Structure to design on (642 residues):
């Protein structure tokens, strides 16, 4: 077998093409296809960014202008303050025809709300998923496997089924229109997917380390904190990143649990931007695209800062699941 | 107590002296207690409450009154939007799931060829999946703008008259399918396929090649069986995701035009949070849960016929993809 393989012409790693002409043809096909897909997947980002820098007049012209004649960075400032992203507080707008001012929270307020929710929910999910995963990975107790099946089972329960009683529960607790419903559940076990991921990772670490520490008199919490957690930093980072994106991008829960504009997260703020009227005589697409960029930037920055964790996390959850 | 915990200890081999076993069991329970509490409060309680509410008439303002199966009867016989929204959702899923899986698999196969630039393309394809849903909808509404949108402009360059996209009953659903492909085709589904493809032992392709199998035969007889577990995993996840379609329709088309994108979960949302028909909406939620469970069970049952688990043999294979 090995001899036969060796006697074959040098093959491409996966496709098994048999000569260099074919390899060349494959290469052309690859780059053409990749180009088309790049246009589909990345083109919209380019168009969003270019639109966000256009003047109002360039938004409505047809055929469309591909790059603004003069980049209007001012659009970002206007988007930030229109539906009023970092400065918590309010922006004042004169109401035309009156001497009154309309005070609207700035997008800064939405950004601060989203940051509060995301930071607290990520912390809660990472901490509680670590504890629960450690419990499942390292301890023997009655019904352990049944309870772990329960963790997995909660993965397929659609949110639609629990949303109404949750709404009623938060209403009863007086939590509606506060950020609590978006944060507190994260502190209770994190999420089944994260428990699963971390348990897999803990189980991959030899028990010898725990047992040695146990001999030296370390309690189970110290073993977790001083031995396992430092070894699991890649997995924990992965979980934290997924958790961040999940909370930052969440739309449905804020939509249902929040009412007042001051409590809105970035997603809802963007929605408000979409539904609020444009300034008279001016389209608002360029401002809306600037707002979309502002809302997406944290996700993109996080992605580029931590790319390798993404692939690892998805592969762990997908393949071993 | 000591006898019962001893009988439940899953692996007798790890049993030590009884007090230690018991202490370990208690510690284990303590570690998983966040999950247990969270499960009770945020899953089990809402699940049972919505089951109860589904047999009541409840408008939040006055106490729920028991009406037996009336809500279910209403769904099946009196509410025209129940069946209409359900079949709409089914048709959407039938469109978006196969197209989505084929696109992700093709993109993954392309990236698995090992050409230069693969990492960059993978990144570019992945970016849309981390974009907040609200931002992606706003971006695509702008791209697909019928009169001055860039997509219709590009279509006009190749002589194709652009459709009115989200503004027409015919094109609203395809618009959402394109949006969903943009959001998911290059995301975790593609990464899972890529990992699956990289796990296929190279020798299998070489053996098939020697036996004279062409590309298409190699794809159907080597690739597909070897990655069938990942296909299955992606199928289950995608079906659940497609049936839950809500946000894109809510933000992008408000269910319209003329109910063209008024999906099941949208109907549930309106019923619960606009009309305050919490009892009826709970019945809809439970019907949805049963549909999702039935479809998931069906897929698990069906997988025996086509999903091939290579088991241990796979680990002995080469992993040089």
């Amino acid at each position: 077998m090995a001899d036969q393989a060796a006697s074959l012409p040098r093959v491409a790693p996966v496709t098994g093409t048999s000569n260099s002409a074919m390899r060349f043809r494959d290469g052309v096909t690859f780059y053409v296809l990749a180009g088309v897909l790049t246009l589909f997947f990345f083109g919209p980002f380019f168009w969003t960014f270019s639109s966000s820098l256009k003047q109002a007049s360039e938004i409505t012209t047809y055929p469309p202008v591909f790059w603004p004649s003069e980049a209007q960075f001012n659009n970002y400032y206007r988007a930030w303050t229109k539906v009023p992203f970092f400065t918590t507080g309010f922006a004042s707008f004169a109401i035309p025809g009156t001497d009154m001012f309309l005070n609207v929270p700035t997008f800064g307020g939405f950004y601060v709300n989203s940051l509060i929710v995301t930071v607290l929910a990520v912390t809660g999910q990472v901490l509680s998923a670590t504890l629960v995963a450690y419990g499942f990975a390292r301890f023997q107790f009655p019904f352990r496997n049944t309870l772990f099946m329960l963790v997995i089972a909660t993965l397929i329960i659609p949110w639609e089924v629990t949303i109404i009683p949750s709404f009623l529960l938060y209403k009863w607790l007086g939590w509606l229109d506060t950020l609590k419903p978006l944060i507190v559940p994260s502190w209770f076990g994190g999420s089944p997917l994260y428990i699963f991921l971390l348990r897999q990772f803990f189980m991959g670490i030899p028990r010898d380390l725990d047992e040695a520490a146990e001999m030296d008199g370390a309690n189970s919490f110290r073993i977790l904190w001083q031995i396992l957690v430092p070894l699991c930093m890649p997995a924990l980072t992965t979980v934290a990143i997924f958790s961040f994106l999940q909370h930052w991008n969440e739309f449905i829960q804020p939509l249902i649990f929040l009412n007042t504009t001051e409590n809105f997260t970035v997603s809802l703020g963007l929605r408000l931007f979409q539904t609020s009227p444009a300034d008279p005589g001016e389209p608002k697409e360029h401002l809306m695209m600037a707002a979309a960029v502002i809302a997406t930037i944290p996700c993109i920055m996080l992605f580029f800062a931590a790319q390798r964790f993404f692939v690892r996390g998805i592969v762990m959850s997908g393949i071993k699941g | 107590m000591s006898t019962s915990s001893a009988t439940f200890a899953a692996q007798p081999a790890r049993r030590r002296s009884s007090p230690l076993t018991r202490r370990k069991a208690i510690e284990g329970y303590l570690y998983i207690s966040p999950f247990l509490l969270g499960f009770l409060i945020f899953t089990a309680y809402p699940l049972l409450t919505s089951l109860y509410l589904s047999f009541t008439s409840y408008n939040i303002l006055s106490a729920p009154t028991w009406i037996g199966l009336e809500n279910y009867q209403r769904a099946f016989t009196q509410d025209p939007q129940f069946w209409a929204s359900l079949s709409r959702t089914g048709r959407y899923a039938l469109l978006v799931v196969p197209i989505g899986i084929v696109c992700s698999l093709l993109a993954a196969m392309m990236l698995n060829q090992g050409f230069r630039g693969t990492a960059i393309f993978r990144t570019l394809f992945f970016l849309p999946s981390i974009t907040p849903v609200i931002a992606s909808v706003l971006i695509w509404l702008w791209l697909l703008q019928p009169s001055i949108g860039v997509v219709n402009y590009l279509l006009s360059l190749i002589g194709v008259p652009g459709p009115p996209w989200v503004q027409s009953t015919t094109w609203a659903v395809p618009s959402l399918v394109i949006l969903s492909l943009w959001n998911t085709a290059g995301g975790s589904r593609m990464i899972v396929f890529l990992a699956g493809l990289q796990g296929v032992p190279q020798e299998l392709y070489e053996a098939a090649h020697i036996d004279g199998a062409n590309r298409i035969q190699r794809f159907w007889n080597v690739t597909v069986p070897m990655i069938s577990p990942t296909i299955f995993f992606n199928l289950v996840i995608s079906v659940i995701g497609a049936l839950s379609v809500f946000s894109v329709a809510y933000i992008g088309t408000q269910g319209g035009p003329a109910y063209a994108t008024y999906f099941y979960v949208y109907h549930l949302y309106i019923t619960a949070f606009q009309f305050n028909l919490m009892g009826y909406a709970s019945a809809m939620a439970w019907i949805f849960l049963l549909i999702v469970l039935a479809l998931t069970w069906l897929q698990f049952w069906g997988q025996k016929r086509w999903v091939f688990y290579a088991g241990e043999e796979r680990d002995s294979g080469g992993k040089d993809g």
Q: What stands out?
A: Residues 138 and 168 of chain B are 18 Å apart (CA to CA). Chain B has two domains: 2-53, 78-316. The beta strands of chain B are 56-57, 65-66. Residues 78-316 of chain B form a domain with the MetI-like fold fold (CATH 1.10.3720.10).
